[in-house]
Amino acid sequence: MKLRVEVVALDCLMVRLFDEIAEANMPWMLAASESLRAAFAGHLIDLVPSYTTLMVHYDLIALSPAQARELIAQALIDLSPNAHARGTCHVLPVWYDLSVGPELRLLSQRSGLAVEEVIRRHSEREYQVFALGFAPGFAFMGLVEEVLAAPRLNTPRKKVAAGSVGIAERQTAAYPVVSPGGWNLIGRTPAKLFDRNRDGYSLMQPGDTVRFESVGHAEFINLGGDDTPLEALA
Question: pTM for the complete prediction?
């Protein structure tokens, strides 16, 4: 762990703990997040964790930048992960089908695996939620097997259906709302990923884990899924 503090704005500091993305980072990120929240207490406006960093947005009226830096330094002395701290494990049903996941065939061709094997490999792993961003409730997860990794589309789609599950490089995610997007789509989940009436709004939070469970079309519909083909949304 290599601690660095960088200026983001007049009232924001970026705490960088690691240089590379890794699943092993998360226990340290959670421990640092908990310690920083306790240290800043009522002077903390927001704390935004990501793959390797935590952005600390603090009350500039209550704390000077120097005081904020000192709080960060003190909070992270002798930092150690809590071996018992675990987020929620979410199981998201997914209908993997070419009509809603057109890049299934592309990933099959790139990897040399049958479409069924692509589905099996994607759904057999448990993924770490690293960060939220891009859209409300959009959780960046990983890491997918290298054989399934694929770059973002050269031309992003103007409209991607809510619930669409995709892969970009070694990340995977599900779109919480209809939005533009350039990820490789492989299926769709009926799960409600963003809800204004939910505490925290997002179904998933950094530190949680996710497992995708392959379901058939009938179960997908019974769970409230929308099977509108992707091309019909254009």
Answer: 0.84
